[in-house]
Batch of 3 targets.
Target 1
Amino acid sequence: MAWFVIYTKSNSEKKVAEKLSEKGIEVYCPLIQKERKWSDRTRIIEVPLFRSYCFVNLEEKERHLVFEVHGVVRYLYWLKKPAIVKQEEIDVIKNLLNNFDHDALELVDININDLILINSGPFTGIEAKVTEKQGMKITVIIESLKMKISINRNKNIINRI
């Protein structure tokens, strides 16, 4: 069996995970604890680590079963095939959430027009502006060098400024 990534309707991750679990499908929706403040109170709530995503562990031939649950939109695809996450990667996420302070965890999304600082490779220490984004590959313009380059976010360390 493989872990597939499903895309859910906005703010439906926990409900989808609950309904899939009730149907006997192994599902994992990583949750982190965040402090939320309202005008009259403060509470610690659980929010999904990955917005609009859940992981399901099932056979390829059973993939259609997830669409019986309201809130499931589609599978996430990579290179025209359903994205598969290795068991080891799921274990790393579980370990991270069980052994580290959730306040220290933050997913930072890089968007077009963001300014970034490159922290690895030959362009270490250079600031750049994101002009294109496709998966884990971003294209940036380095104004000081009058150069346009592509960066693979899996192989380089970058921070949004």
Note: The chain has a mean pLDDT of 87.
Target 2
Amino acid sequence: MAETGLHIPMTLPWAWERRSLARHELESLWGEAQLILRVINQMEAHAPRETDAEAPIARLEAKLDLALHLLSLSLQGGQSPPQPARITLRAEGCTLGTDLALQPGDEIVLSLHLSPALTVPLKLGAAVTEFAKGEMRADWIAMPDAIREAWEQWLFRQHRRRVQAQRGQRGP
């Protein structure tokens, strides 16, 4: 399965569940995903430029939104994250091992624990699109543009970190 575009092979805690998503469930997932990605991107972003007067307010709002969301989740009871496993993340979806009992066309909810600082996973709806060469590909279902932009921002940051780490290992 040839990967085109930005794809980031990673080892991180993730889990999946087979579930067909009604439109309102998908919209709920996207609302939560937007909040989580906004907070992660704010936490991981470099210090704001002094000319960006709104950056501190945006960070504070993101933290308050997350605090309220985590409070509501804590009232529901928490679970520990799954064991880290290999996954390749792409702007359009992900690539997983084929030992999963899924078929093309199956819909899943993928729970990704992107940041050790957050106990809540990013949940994204995806549809299995193909199996090839020992891997299964799933593409995000109807991801809104605002979430896609935040997702791509996070992916690109991971790519930059990977490139910097490789350069650091090779030396000057």
Note: The CA atoms of residues 24 and 156 lie 29 Å apart.
Target 3
Amino acid sequence: MIAPTTALIAEDEEPQRTELRGMLARLWPELVIVAECDNGISALDVWTSEKPDVAFLDIRMPGLGGLEVARQAVSPAQVVFITAHDEFAVKAFDAGAIDYLLKPIRSDRLIETVARLRSRQPATQVDFTALIDSLAGRLKPVEMITWITASIGDTLRMIHIGDVILFQSEDKYTRVATATDSAYIRTPLKDLIPKLDPEAFWRVHRNAIVRVSAIRQVKPDGDGRLLVWLHGMTEPLRVSDAFRHRFRAM
């Protein structure tokens, strides 16, 4: 009897893990998911103990990123890197046994990936060191935001990122709020996210990113939806279902 193909999913955002698991269940129903991890250290431990045939690894995770997990793993596996940023989708991903998926993951792209993975089974030992070093050398470092040039009417203002408590989409602009006032920029939230410290800023809704340290309280409304209050602001922000997992411990 042929043993089933096994896989590890390592992705720090629960909605993305759930979506990928569901897509794989439809496209590769005989694939057995042996574990799902939300950080790189757990992923490496599971890889060592479970020895999966396939590893889906988010490039950026707490503890260890996907590149380091693949580098340190000792058992063979087909590797698929997952990334939200186009700059990671370089030619080195197409070399050898390495594949990649861009977020949000498209079904047509995953179909291609599954076909390639199936054609390569069983997995063989791959020395990722040189390939990953080459890949890492091509990755463009993301320049984190320090100062924001925003407008208040006809006046330009320089706002330090340490003073920002909220980025919020409003029509064609993004509101940049501090504890005392607001200004506006044209940069959309999707372009801001890669340039913000993920430990300092959380997306709580498709139209809002908040500074974690500015959160005053989080509580449900009468309909069970989570609301976030920030220091210096009287009106709460609604937390969408896709991001409420961030507040489970609260």
Note: Residues 6-138 form a domain with the Rossmann fold fold (CATH 3.40.50.2300).
